Amino acid sequence: MSAPRFKRVVIAGLGLLGGSLALALKRRRLARRVVAWGRNLGRLKPALKAGLVDEVSVEAACAAGADLIVLCTPYDRFEGQLKELARVAPRGCLVTDVGSVKGAEVARWHRAAGPLRFVASHPMAGGEHTGWRHAQAGLFEGAACLLTPLPRTDRGAVLAIGRLWQALGMDVALLSPLEHDRLVGRVSHLPHAVAFALAAAQAQLGPAGDFAWAGKGWFDTTRVAGSDPDLWADIFLHHPRRLDAPLRAVETEIRRLRKLLAARRRPQVLAWLDKAARLRRATEQCRR
Amino acid sequence: MSAPRFKRVVIAGLGLLGGSLALALKRRRLARRVVAWGRNLGRLKPALKAGLVDEVSVEAACAAGADLIVLCTPYDRFEGQLKELARVAPRGCLVTDVGSVKGAEVARWHRAAGPLRFVASHPMAGGEHTGWRHAQAGLFEGAACLLTPLPRTDRGAVLAIGRLWQALGMDVALLSPLEHDRLVGRVSHLPHAVAFALAAAQAQLGPAGDFAWAGKGWFDTTRVAGSDPDLWADIFLHHPRRLDAPLRAVETEIRRLRKLLAARRRPQVLAWLDKAARLRRATEQCRR
Q: Starting at the edge strand that comes first in sequence, how are the strands of the sheet with B68-71 ordered?
C-alpha cells in the first residue's frame, strides 16, 4: 500500500500529540501544508516560528480546502468542533481524532461531522510531558493505534485513516467503541489510576526529599502519575463506573498481601508474588 | 581520594548484582583477581569460561588471602557465611554486602564477622532480570548506595567501603540500619508491592493477550512486578508489619478515587490527581 499524501492537513489543538503529528507528517513527507487550529494565537505563533507548522489560525475557516483534519483537543470539544468544521471543510474531507475514550460518543461525533468522512482513532502514544515543545516525530512509531468505526462508517475512509497511522509506523487494529473502552480501561487507565493513587499516598507518608534515595523502581512505577491532571480527569470521568471493579480488584490484592505478610506465610507470599510476576512476564511477550 | 585497589576479591553469590560487581571491578581495574564463591560448581563454571571471574569455588577457604569479600546472597545466609569466613579470611579483611534490608540483623552480622571488618551496604541498583548473564558493568553508576554502620563499626573500614562504591560511580550516604529500612520501605518496597498488586489484579481481569494493545504506561508501571519473587518474598517478610500502614494508605487513596468518580465530582477528581502529580514531580527534582 502506498502512503497517503495530503495537501492541507488541519490539526486542531497543538499539544504533545498534535505537535508530534505535525512533525511526523513533515518528516515523512505525508503533508504538503500543515495548519494548526487553536484558540489562542499568542500560543500558536511560537510553533509557526519554530517551523513546526506552516500556518496557524483561530478560525475554523482554516479548514477550507483541507483534505485531512485531526482533532487533538480534549474529547468534550469534538462535537462542537465537528459541527463548525462541517460548515467549512470540503464535503468528504477525512476527519479523525486522537482521543483516549470512545464509547457512545462516537455516534454523536459521526452525526456532528455531517458530510465529512469521520473515523475515530486512538493512537496509543503519549507521555507525561504536555505541550508541542515536547513533540517528537517518532512518538507514534512502534505503538498501537485502535480505530473504532461504526457499521455505517465509510469503508474507504477507514482504510485511508488506517494507512495514515501505518505510514507513521503504527500497528492498526479495528475494535467497536465499547470494546475499545473496556480494553483501554484495563491496559491503560487502570495502571494510570494506580500510579496516581501510589503517588497520592506518598504525599501523606513523608517528605519528597526521601526520594533522593529512590531507585528506578519508584520512577518507573509512578512515571505516568506525572501526566496532565486535566486530561486524566476527563478520561476517568468519561465512564465514571468503568474503573470501579478493576480498582476494587487492586484493593483486594493489596489487602491480601497485607494479610499474608501479617501471617508471615512465606509459601503463600511467594505464590502470590509468583502469580503477579508471571502475569507481568506474559504481557511482556505481547509487547510490540 | 584515590580509588581502592584490591588483590583478591571474593564475591559470594553470582547473580545480577554479584556478576555486575565482578564486571565493574574488572572494568575499572579495582581488583586484580575476582573469585566467585557459590554452592553449585556446575553453575559457576560458565561464568569462569565467560571471563566474568578469575576463579570459582564452593569452599569458603577461597577467602584465604582475600582483602575484600562482598556478600551478594540472600540476607538470611549472611550470618552463617560470615561465621565460615571469619575462620578462613585474613584478620581485618574488609567485608560488605548488597542486601536490601538491614535493621537489627546488622548487629548480628557484625558479631558473626568476628575479626573481619564488616560494613553493611545497600547499593540501590538492580533490575527485573536475575542471574549473572544479565550483569552490566554500569549497573551501579549514578545510583545511590546506603551504608549502615553501627557506632562500633571500624571507621577506616566505613571509609574504604564508601570509596569502593564511589569508585563504581555511586553516591554514598550513611544511615542507621533502622532509618535505612524506613526509607527504603517507602521509596522502594512500597512501589514494588503496589506494582505486584496491580499485576496480581490483572491476572483476574482478563487474558494477558489484551496487553498487545498496552502502551509504555502499563509496562513502566509494572516493570518491577517482573522481579524475582523469591528475593521479594525475603524482603517483604523481613519486617512483615513495616509495609502495612503504607499499603493501607494506598488502599485509602484508591477508595477515595473510586468515590470521587462515582460522585462525578470533577473539581475534586482534578484536585486529587493534581496532588499526586505534584508529589511525583517533586520527587523527580530529587532524582540523581
A: B55-57, B31-37, B6-12, B68-71, B94-97, B117-119
Residue B124 touches partner A, C-beta closer than 8 Å: yes
Indicate the pairing of strand A6-12 with strand A68-71. parallel
The DSSP annotation for B215-263 comes to: -HHHHHHTGGGGS-HHHHHHHHHHSTTTTHHHHHHHHHHHHHHHHHHHT
CB–CB contact B221 A191 (8 Å): yes
Place of cell 519473587: B229
Cα separation, B69 vs B63, whole angstroms? 8
pLDDT (tens, 9 = 90+) of chain A, 288 residues, equals: 456 699 999 999 999 999 999 999 999 999 999 999 999 999 999 999 999 999 999 999 999 999 999 999 999 999 999 999 999 999 999 999 999 999 999 999 999 999 999 999 999 988 778 899 999 999 999 999 999 999 999 999 999 999 999 999 999 999 999 999 999 999 999 999 999 999 999 999 988 889 988 988 999 999 999 999 999 999 999 888 899 999 999 999 999 999 999 999 999 999 999 999 999 999 998 887
**Closest residue in chain A to residue B125, using alpha carbons only:** A215
Calculate the CA dihedral of residues B146, B150, B154, B155 and round it to 10 degrees. Answer: 60
Q: Does the beta-carbon distance from A256 to B188 stay under 8 Å?
A: no
Q: Please state which architecture CATH assigns to domain B6-175.
A: 3-Layer(aba) Sandwich (3.40)
CA-nearest residue to A247 within chain B is B254
Chain B hits for A146, Cβ within 8 Å: 213
Choose the mutation target among A98, A216, A270 for the interface with B, i.e. most B CBs under 10 Å: A216
Distances (CA, A) of A148 to A18, A97, A115, A174, A243: 20, 11, 19, 6, 20
Task: Assign residue A12 a region (left: φ > 0; alpha: ψ between -120 and 50; beta: otherwise).
Answer: beta
Provide the sign of the torsion angle of the four alpha carbons A50, A53, A54, A60, taken in this order: negative
Amino acid at A94: L
Domain ranges of chain A: 6-175, 179-285
Question: Does domain B179-285 sit in CATH 1.20.210.10?
Answer: no
Using an 8 Å CB-CB cutoff, list chain B residues near A143.
Answer: 215
Alpha-carbon distance of A283 to A235, in angstroms, equals 24
Q: Do A201 and B261 touch (CB under 8 A)?
A: no
**A143, A230, A249 member nearest B201 (Cβ):** A249
For chain A, say whether B207 makes contact (Cβ under 8 Å).
no
pTM: 0.83
> Within the 125-144 window of chain B, which residues sit less than 8 Å (CB to CB) from chain A?
125-126, 143-144
